[in-house]
Structures are given as C-alpha cells and as structure tokens.
C-alpha cells in the first residue's frame, strides 16, 4: 500500500513538473500561431520610460493605425538596465523567443551590440531617408555603410543658467553666448564671489562632462577602430585640463550621484547646468524658479574644430532580424518615427521630447516660447545647435574606456599630472578591451 | 523480510532522486557549463576556445586585483567586527532578567528584513555631501567643511563596511541567541559558584559551546561577503575610481556593462568559487572538530 502511494506521489510530482515545462512551450507556440492566423497584426516593443519613449511609441501607433487599422502595438516597459541585461543574456544564449520585435537602444551601445551579436538587428539603409536626420545621429547608427536603426531622441546639450544669479554677478545674456571654458570658469568665480552660489556641480566618479567636452571637439574616449584615445589626443588633454581647472577653481559643488546633482539645481544651489536637452523636465520641476532660467550654447574649447555644441545621451529604435513580424515592424517605424513630422510635433507637445528629424524643426511647435525660460524659444535654439554637433563613432568599448578613465580621476584631482594620468588610463583600457 | 527492506529502500531512493535530479539539472549542470565557458573568450555570441588565456589574463588584470583586494579587505575587517558584535549583543540579550527583551531583539533583527537596495539607497543619502551625517557633525562643530564620504577612497570603504555591518549583525545575532538558549543554565550556575566572572564565562564556556554555530556563521558570512554586490553597486557604484568595487560587481560589468565577454566573466566567477572553497577549508581545519 505504502509503495503504491509513494509511487503515485512520485509520478504526480514528476508529471506536474514535466507539465509545467511543457506548458510554457505550448503557450508560446499558440501565441505565435494566433499572431499570424488572425487579422490583427501585433508587434511587440521594449522601451524604458513610459512617459517618454513609451509614450512616443503610443503616438506612433495611433498615427500608423490611421492607415493600418489592424495594427496593434504591445509596449513592454522595463527599467533600462533590466532591458539591456535581458537583451544581452537572450542574445548570448541564442534564445530568440523571449525577445520583442522592436527594441530601444542607447546610442553608445549601438556598435557594441551590432558587433557582438552579428545578424541580430535589421538593416534600415534603404527603408528610411537618413538625409532628413541630424548627421551625427546617423553616424552613430552607421557601421560598414549600413544603417541599423531609426534615429530617435537627441541629447543636444545646452548651458542652462539662472538669469537672476548671473545678473547679480553683472552678466547679461549676451555675455554667455559662445564663450570658452576658461571664460566660463572666470564667470563662475565672479558668481561665487558675488552671490555665494556655485557655478556648477562636479562628481569625480562620473564622466558625463568629459563626454560632452570630447564630442564638442569631434573626439571620443576611443578611436573609430576601437583603440584607446587617451594619449596623443590634444582634445583629451584639454578636457582633462579644463576638468581639473573647474575642480581647482572651487566653482563646482561636489555631488555623489544623480539625485544630488538634480537636487542641487532644484534647490537653487548652482547657477548653471551643462546637460542634454532632456534635462529641461528636471529643471522645470522646481516650479518656483519659473522665469529665472535661460539657456545658452555650451562653452567651447580653444581648439581648432571645437564648437559650442555637443550631445549627451539619446537613443534609437532597432528591429530584430529574427522577428516574425520583421517587415511590419520596419514599415511601422519608417512611416512614423522614421519620417513623419506630425509624430515629432506631437512628441514635443505631449512629452517635451526632441527628435533628430530635421524637417520637423521648421514647424510651429518647435518655435513655441517657454515661459519657464523667460520667453525663450528654447526648442528652436536646441534644434539649431543639434545641426552643429560633430558626428563621431562611439565604437565598441565606450563603457570600458569610461571606467578606465574614472579609475584615474581621483588621482588627477589630487594633483597627478595629466600626461601620467592619461598614460595610466590608456594602459588600463588596453588591458580591459580585449 | 528482505524484500520489505528493499521496497522501503527503493522508496527512499526515489524520494532522494527527485531533489538530486533537480540539483544536478539546475545547479551542477550550469556549473559544468560555466567551467567550459571560462575557457572561451569572445564578444556576445561569438566564442572560441582559448585554453588558459582567460586565467592568464586574470592574473595580469589590475581591476581584478583591485576588486579582489577590496573584497578581501571587507572580509578581513567587516566579518570579525560583525561576528564579535553579534556575539556580544546576543550575550547581552540572553540575560534572563533583561526587560523589554522582545523589543530589543526585534529592533536588532529588523535591518535584516529590509531590502538590500532600499537600505543601500538610504545609506547613500545619509552619507551624501549634504547628508544627515555631515550636518550632524557640522552642528556639533566636529568638522568645518562637509566630508565627501562617498568620493574619498578610504571613507567610502568605511561607509560600505558600516552599511553591511548594520544590515547583517542582527542576522548572525539570532543564530547565537538561539544557540545560547540551548545551553543548560545550570552550568553557568556551577561556574558562578566556582567564582568565574561573567567575562570569563563568556570566553571559556559560551564561546566554546557555540563553536559549531560560530563556524557556520563564519562560513556563511565569508561566502556572502565574497559575493557582495548590491550594497556596493547602489551606494558607491564601485567608485571613486574602483576603490570600492567588488569581484561580483566586476563580473556584472564584464557581462552587462561592457561589450559582453561571458567567457572571461565565468573565469572571474571561478576565482570566487576557488576563494570560497579555500577559505571554508581553512576555517573548518582551524575551528572545526578534529576527528
């Protein structure tokens, strides 16, 4: 009797286990067949911010549905870091079932993904008219003359500043246009002296400002052929010199993380913020500071080829090569985000998002004046600067290079000379990127 | 008679077979696969066998060395502090005439039920440049300018150690407390009659009697410190520079932050496996019962 019971128990246990395994595979296959047999055409997309890029997809879906009423888009929101992990592990394991049709990719990761996972992402070269996009966005997407996605939002940078603080220190808007970094530091010193406020923030454990400086002079942490770009690079040396000068001058408030960084300007501790256009949302969170802000072009290096424009962040849409709905997904993206001014107007109006589709820049929406920024037509300014940003290749090893640099930043700030620091960074990077 | 024994044995084996099978499938098989992976290198989905190259790279990798140094530093400083603190607190809370015993026990164990990420974020804000610790120290006139705790290589390590100690002391304390309650109180009475002081009783009676539990907590704390990840990622993100980076965070960076090289990441994980095994072996030899 005992034996029968135990055997039965065993069988049910193993049975249920196997059934559990079997269930999941059944489920996916039935889903797939449902997708193809019914007339509803469904595409799945991954995005990381429901109020920004997720919302953009919603707008695109509505626009596309006008002509394709059967089209349906399922947007799956998850944290950016989770999404990157999921993509990495799925691709490395060669499992394609769990992946969506459309995926959002951070621009610095583009080359890394395309090289590390060949034949995974669809070629968009002939599907979209890339001359209508900001050239530097297209450069980031181009590998071996193929363009692997649809450019999306941009992070064109500006120097946001508090007009009241700068006025107190004796500066007018015109004094802040097209300045150099050394002039910026001098202004910062006066601001600190007259108002007691810091000019900016500094985080020795972050390399965001370095990235902005490098791109403004058409350089990057690594060369297009993925070698370290730290030694014998005048732009990098100048970046380090200015960074150290900002730190030494005492015009920068030390912060340890993102929330402290945002907190410092929301609390009115700093007179300027050098950041991407998407920072507008965080700046506008401080409702009491309305009318006290303005934005000017970022400072530039005193070097040949250096401009008063750069970029921080930004992302692009990719379609998976292995997706069952590849053609539909491509068509959807190219007819909306890849070439529809109405999409960009709505995206700016509803979510404050700035795209890189240049024909949209001449629309009325982009000319609107912002009350928060003292009546300045900020979007028009940003889009104008976006056409000046030098195009660069992010290469495969940006993250490795940034980390190698971060490792030596404390040393630089404590007085190690720039040549030694950069030599160390180069050595560390070469060991890392292999 | 004989067949009945055989039946019982068969049932037993069948019961053991299920978990054994599951462990084989979900634990040992991946371990074997990752061992194979540690001999490969490449990017993303393109891999080649490279023999011992990854292991050679490991020994010349300055970031791995730095991460190992940091991890061993946490281990050498934090684990003894935490275990001694846990033992002392357990001893205090074990006093039969202590009032509000339940309250103290709960209060000290409470950090263990907080999520790793949320407590890390709290510590990050407590030790921010204009955080509560700096404000307190400035109000008390102990410092003039705020200390950038998380931007200084030494202080940031101190913050990490304080954080882990806060989180895990209560956990170990519970082990000691429950083991202490299994010690017959009459032996303490006997010791008191013989004139042994309380301190003497703690070190010559309680500690030896708790030896198996101390060994257990030592091994679990060692292996969890070697795998330290959440706190460092959330409090300092490994910075400043790589001053607080742990081996686990390095593995994470290799797999998910950098151009993915799961082969080399697997090699680094095996370095942790090796260290845990060696340290556990040493602890068993030094503290374990001799047969």
TrEMBL record, chain A:
Transmembrane segments annotated in the record for this chain: none
Family matches, as InterPro entries: Bact_solute-bd_prot1, SBP
Signal sequence annotation: 1-19
Keyword annotations: Signal
Superkingdom of the source species: Bacteria
Protein's name according to its UniProt entry: ABC transporter substrate-binding protein
From TrEMBL, chain B:
An annotated GO BP: transmembrane transport
Subcellular location, principal: membrane
UniProt keyword annotations, A-Z: Cell membrane, Membrane, Transmembrane, Transmembrane helix, Transport
A Pfam family that the UniProt record links to this protein: BPD_transp_1
Alphabetized SUPFAM superfamilies for the sequence: MetI-like
Transmembrane segments: 12-32, 72-94, 106-127, 147-166, 202-220, 262-282
Subcellular location: Cell membrane
UniProt GO cellular component terms: plasma membrane
Membrane topology: Multi-pass membrane protein
Entry keyword annotation includes Phosphoprotein: no
Top-rank taxon, per record: Bacteria
UniProt entry tagged with the keyword Cell division: no
Domain ABC transmembrane type-1: 68-283
CDD domains cross-referenced by the UniProt entry: TM_PBP2 (cd06261)
Family: Belongs to the binding-protein-dependent transport system permease family.
Name recorded for this polypeptide: Lactose ABC transporter permease
Organism from which the protein derives: Paenibacillus antarcticus
